[in-house]
Write a structure and sequence with these properties.
By secondary structure, the chain is an alpha+beta fold. 33% of the residues lie in helices and 28% in strands. It has seven helices and seven strands; from the N terminus they run E-H-H-H-H-E-E-E-H-E-H-E-E-H. The longest helix has 15 residues. The chain is globular and about 40 Å long. The model has no long low-confidence stretch (mean pLDDT 86).
Amino acid sequence: MQIPQPAENEVWYFREMRPKDAQAIFEINSDEVTCRFTVLERQQSLPAIHSWIDYYPSYKRHGFGIWVIAHKQTHRALGLCGLRVRKDLNNAIDLSYRMHPAWRNLGIASKAVKVCVAFGFTVLKLEQILAQVHKENLISARILAKLGFEKGDLNGIWQNWILIQPTQKEK
């Protein structure tokens, strides 16, 4: 599996999730802000997160998935970001990201999203990428709008944001 990587001057990199990431992922998922804007029913306890990491089939099945945003020196998880196949949305490719509270508001999420989007279009040759964001999550909406995502349908509390491959827009 090929994993996208940011420019060399960054302090982070992407890698697959590992069992030792469970504590950091638990801290991300149990954070008040994360809980307000996501639904992570199966990832609300440390044992559940260990099971999720152990089972996570996307890397082998699709060649991509949700990656850990890891600190280059400590290798600790700063956040999660990646692309996933959403069976509940007709196999749409969905962008997912969330940051550890200690690493928010530093521009890392914006850069990670940008790298994942570029990977999706250049390596995976996707025609479009979907991002479902809680309608009150204005920070994520701002990140997506800056990257060219366009606001789509509102699906309950979820605002769909869609980015179409630039070459597809011209057709």
